[in-house]
């Protein structure tokens, strides 16, 4: 007789400011792009608003008709400038391990260019089960649905919107540009100070 298996626990994670502190690397890459193009970019300001797609930041510094080309240059320069200086967020390795130790899958869904997202995870030894890039806010729901994610962990109100559209539980960490109150107001189901609180939360959720 066919035996019904319960669906595998699948947890989605955002990348920038959720799993990794990419501010130093992104800062270095913006300065390098500025030097290469001769265009002023306030890198200190740019790294305070991480989350949305790169093009939404570049439009502040380049004419609209140059943004797509500048984004290509940035992405090409990124591996040389942004990977080495980027660190894992506190609790990142443990959060992924908690999902996998519970028999689940941890998938990374990010607005970042997918090859560069993979470079970050490889460099930091964060072993996600899948990495899906180039999706922001509501569009993150596409990957969350495809992988059957019941939970999505992120740091931005855009991540909360993506989770809600995918009908996944929205777990927010207040480690990025949005504070706990902003995340709650956006509709996050759970708000944690950072990922170090995630394994204990997951154990309660699983129970």
Automatic annotation (TrEMBL):
UniProt entry keywords in alphabetical sequence: Hydrolase
InterPro entries in alphabetical order: HAD-like_hydrolase_sf, HAD-like_sf, HAD_sf, PGP-like_dom2
Gene3D superfamilies assigned: HAD superfamily/HAD-like (3.40.50.1000), Putative phosphatase, domain 2 (1.10.150.240)
Gene Ontology molecular function: any one: hydrolase activity
Pfam families linked to this entry: HAD
Source domain of life: Bacteria
SUPFAM superfamilies, per the entry: HAD-like
PANTHER family, A to Z: 5'-NUCLEOTIDASE, PHOSPHOGLYCOLATE PHOSPHATASE
Protein name, entry field: HAD family hydrolase
